[in-house]
Sequence to fold (409 residues):
Amino acid sequence: MPVSSPSLFRRLTTAVTQWIDSDHCPEGAEKMRAESDRVDWVRVMPFVFLHLGCIGIIWVGASWFAVWAAVALYFIRMFAVTGIHHRYFSHKTYSTSRFGQFLLALWAGTTVQRGSLWWAYHHRHHHQHSDGPEDAHSPHVHGFLWSHIGWITSRNNFPTDYSKIKDLAKFPELVWLNRFDLVVPILYAFSMFGLGSALQHFAPGLGTNGWQMLVWGFFVSTTFLFHGTACINSMAHLMGKRRYKTDDDSRNSFILAIICLGEGWHNNHHRYQSATRNGFYWWEIDPTYYGLKLMSWTGFIWGLKPVPESVLEEGTRAEHAASVAAAQQAALVHPEYASTFRQMLPTAAALAVATVNAAHVTLPRKAENPAVHKDVTELAHEMQRNAPGIDATESAPVARPEAKPDSSA
Ligand SMILES: [Zn+2]
Ligand SMILES: [Zn+2]
Fold:
């Protein structure tokens, strides 16, 4: 019998104890993290219970109040996932006081996605090893299902490596919330039950009660919240467009930006992680950023970090090169319109980019960077020259000799 392998009984008692004390690792957290991927069915029982609790709607029924409360609580807590777990604890894209940080951790605790320190440790690890063999949740390495839900049930991903998040681990109150990460979710669940019971008593016209609010406000809302968040791990590396050529497969998706309050601009975020906003341009909807901006006006948080101008310009150039390539592709698909497309579309695309530049107030002034404000034709030519594989003469009004435009006919 191998000495290093703990008995089944010990594994079971360890897993059950970890429900309450997630830092409980008798065999050592390092050893546990070094194990290969394997679902710990006992340890994940609370997570399974969360999903099973949704079935409770069969018995508690529904009321408009409970359903809309579940929707509202999804978004209020999605804001905590994106604005707190992610943009504060993982990336420190803004500042707050120590007490403010504690309140943020409490709010983030209601999301039932473990403690903020566990979240930040795993997320920083993801950025370090994105879509590589060590990435815990890459759909390209482990497949869709594992990246979406499997990795969170695996024994090796349960411990928090405090040595990798020393900037956060120095606060004992945060470590306590991380260690006993079921405390806030249990309080949240009780508060849902209490709210429903109070409404049943004081506002019976709403047609809700304690059990109904527990099922809709806690179980249903939290389960959707988990899967919405998990889409960033799975779908945001599969679905959408890649503006920046990052060395992972992160993508920008409008749909994911809506579901996850701005996190869908994941390729932007992988290109530059330190900015408070993930939607880099005004048309990339980022409700988390708007919320954080509002909070900064109250003085509760401050020091929101901007996207550097160089990164914005890089993105603008990449978008334009993509537009030109798309126009040329269109000309290939419909050769009968080739001449018109070649002459018109690159210019139209350049015009769109130039309009956007003009509308984007944070872009540099002409004196600081004349390149951004060149006239449309010049901009189009320059961007085509910079785009690999695209002939700079393609959009010129004079057709290339080998193109034999239909003007010769
Ligand atoms: Zn990612
Ligand atoms: Zn991140």
